Automatic annotation (TrEMBL):
CDD domains documented for this protein: Ras_like_GTPase (cd00882)
Domain of life of the source: Eukaryota
GO molecular function: GTP binding; GTPase activity
Domain called Guanylate-binding protein N-terminal: residue spans: 7-86
Region (Disordered): 538-558
InterPro entries with a match to the protein in the record: Guanylate-bd_N (IPR015894), P-loop_NTPase (IPR027417)
Protein name (record): Guanylate-binding protein N-terminal domain-containing protein
């Protein structure tokens, strides 16, 4: 029973039915609930043992009440008289204290017996006497309903018989006067102890010896009376039961019952509801705080699984969770009323939630720092790889364009997306760190580019000079081998025109396979160089004409060699003055000339 009540944190109203043995209390409860929740039997002995709680709590609307009202716990109490008045009293007292409605069922086939009914009610009044302070007995119990089974009399008349104060002066004997006084004393105690004026119901007798299991199969007059009782109960159960001015929840009732049962173990119980409810409120406040803290752990665990989060988003999530949990705790504590236990539980809860929130904030900060380091390392490595992949050498402007393109790729949307959860200060630190590393790498690439340009320029110049020298040697060799033999080329008259040079060289190369193509590509450059050399050599030849003829053939060969070396030296000096683009072009021609020169030399030999 306690498990059912403890699971309900909202308000709960308890309805308890009591009475003598074999009066059909369980059947009455099943009829009011509308389903078979309590066991019934035709046996002579009591079927219900102790206290039997309905296995589920009914919603207020199940009885025709308002939606959202306090839930209802129907309780069947063991029949009175089976184990003695003392046992009945100890069993009934805790239930009477927590019940919103008390149903007393009596068999009255011949009409109500005020003596018998008030004797049963006197047991409840003895339970009220266990409360130490008389002022605490006012409205101590809930609403009383006396149900007269198998009674066909008028309900108002029956109410008057049972609860109207009798005039002792009308007694014929002293014994009658004493009985009247005793009954009046019970009536006054009832008026003091119950919340409202008692209600009397006359439940007509069924024609059948055995009542149908489902009350809806009974005659219409029986069904109508059950519905009338349900409506009256629904109206009274719309407000929660108060004990010491505090509404009772399922959890409070579950905690209160053991306290009351323990207090009733004494031979002379003296219940102090304020003291008992204060202890129960303290225990319930602690339990509520523990339950909500358990829920807080689950909520914070969910938030922890979403880390890392932006600081603003994390603060918002924590605030939403704290507000929701605080409202849940307030809903649990409001039933306890104003008490120090509730305030202490709320303060302890807020302190614990704040501590755990701060721990989560610290954890999020560590994860953000780790993320920043990871992003910095990843994008720095990517920048190094991209800069290292730039092919060198490049023109300076082209290199700068490549560097700018890499910067745009690194500091683009991807980087900002990866750093979206980082605070602005940490994002700027990551950007600055990556930018500093890139500047170092860029400077290194610029220096390496300049070094590669210088090395390549030097190589091209050397190759171009070598090729030009070979081209000059080839031209000289071709002219030396011109028709007429020996030095006939040096005896060319001053009227020799450039086209004669072209014809002569073409004639010599035509006899050599593969030289035509070489001649078409190489001739324009060679002609300019050869023409300048020819003019210079013609002047030298005229000055030494007389002496040359006197020399031997060996001296003439030596002169030719020196002449070729001089021409190569002059061509090399001119080559050094050319720009980088022209140098590359001449170098290419020089490489071609190398191959052709080797072929011509082999041919001449």
């Amino acid at each position: 029973a306690n498990a059912v009540l403890r699971a309900e944190n909202g308000f709960v109203n308890t309805v308890v039915v009591c009475g003598r043995l074999r009066t059909g209390k369980s059947y009455l409860m099943n009829s009011l609930i509308g389903e078979s929740c309590f066991g019934v039997s035709s046996q002579a002995r009591s079927f219900t043992r102790g206290v039997d709680l309905c296995p589920r709590l009914l919603a207020a609307e199940d009885l025709g009440g308002q939606v959202g009202g306090p839930r209802i716990a129907f309780t069947d109490l063991e029949g009175q008289g089976d184990k003695g008045a003392a046992q009945d009293l100890k069993l009934a007292t805790p239930l009477l204290l927590i019940s919103k409605a008390v149903l007393l069922q009596e068999l009255c086939p011949t009409g109500p017996s005020k003596e018998s009914i008030l004797e049963s009610l006197q047991l409840m009044m003895l339970a009220a006497n266990f409360v130490a302070e008389r002022k605490d007995r006012r409205g101590l119990f809930g609403c009383l309903h006396v149900i007269l089974r198998d009674c066909m009399q008028d309900e108002a008349e029956c109410h008057s018989i049972i609860f109207d104060i009798e005039d002792e002066n009308d007694a014929e004997t002293d014994e009658q006067a004493q009985a009247m006084a005793k009954r009046n004393q019970v009536r006054k105690a009832i008026a003091l102890s119950f919340e409202a004026t008692p209600h009397v119901w006359c439940l007509p007798k069924l024609a059948e010896d055995t009542a149908p299991e489902d009350y809806r199969k009974a005659p219409e007059f029986f069904i109508a009376k059950i519905h009338e009782i349900r409506s009256a109960l629904a109206e009274q159960l719309a407000q929660p039961k108060l004990l010491d001015g505090r509404p009772l929840t399922g959890g409070v009732i579950a905690a209160l019952m053991p306290e009351l049962a323990e207090a009733m173990r004494s031979d002379a119980p003296a219940l102090n509801p304020p003291s008992i409810i204060e202890r129960v409120a303290e225990a319930e406040a602690k339990r509520a705080s523990v339950d909500v803290l358990r829920q807080a752990e689950q909520d914070l665990l969910c938030i922890s699984g979403s880390l890392p989060l932006a600081i603003a988003d994390l603060c918002e999530a924590l605030e939403v969770a704290r507000t929701r949990l605080s409202e849940a705790l307030d809903a649990r504590l409001v039933a306890l009323g104003v008490c120090s236990a509730a305030d202490e539980a709320k303060a302890s809860f807020l302190s614990e939630v704040l501590c755990r929130s701060q721990g989560l904030m610290a954890k999020n900060g560590e994860i953000l720092e780790e993320l920043a380091a990871k992003v910095r390392k990843e994008f720095s490595s990517r920048a190094e790889d991209l800069l290292a992949a730039i092919p060198l050498p490049l023109a300076q402007s082209r290199l700068e364009l490549e560097i700018v393109s890499i910067r745009d790729a690194i500091f683009g949307a991807e980087l900002e997306g990866r750093m979206a959860v980082l605070p602005e200060g940490l994002r700027q630190l990551v950007r600055d760190s990556i930018a500093g590393l890139m500047r170092e790498c860029e400077d290194q690439r610029r220096k390496l580019n300049e070094k590669e340009q210088s090395r390549r320029r030097s190589g091209w110049l050397r190759l171009g000079a070598f090729g030009t020298a070979l081209a000059a040697l080839v031209a000289a060799a071709v002219l030396v081998a011109a028709p007429g033999g020996g030095g006939s080329a040096l005896q060319t008259p001053p009227s020799f025109a450039p086209q004669n040079w072209q014809e002569l060289l073409a004639a010599r190369c035509t006899s050599m396979p593969g030289c035509e193509h070489w001649l078409q590509k190489l001739w324009p450059e060679l002609f300019r160089e050869a023409e300048a050399a020819r003019i210079r050599k013609e002047e030298e030849a005229r000055e030494v004409e007389a002496e040359r003829q006197r020399r031997s053939k060996e001296a003439e060969d030596e002169r030719r060699r020196l002449q070729a070396e001089a021409e190569a030296e002059a061509a090399f000096q001119r080559m050094l003055l050319l720009q980088d683009a022209e140098t590359r072009k001449i170098a290419g021609l020089g490489v071609g000339a190398l191959g052709t020169s080797l072929a011509l030399l082999r041919r001449f030999r």
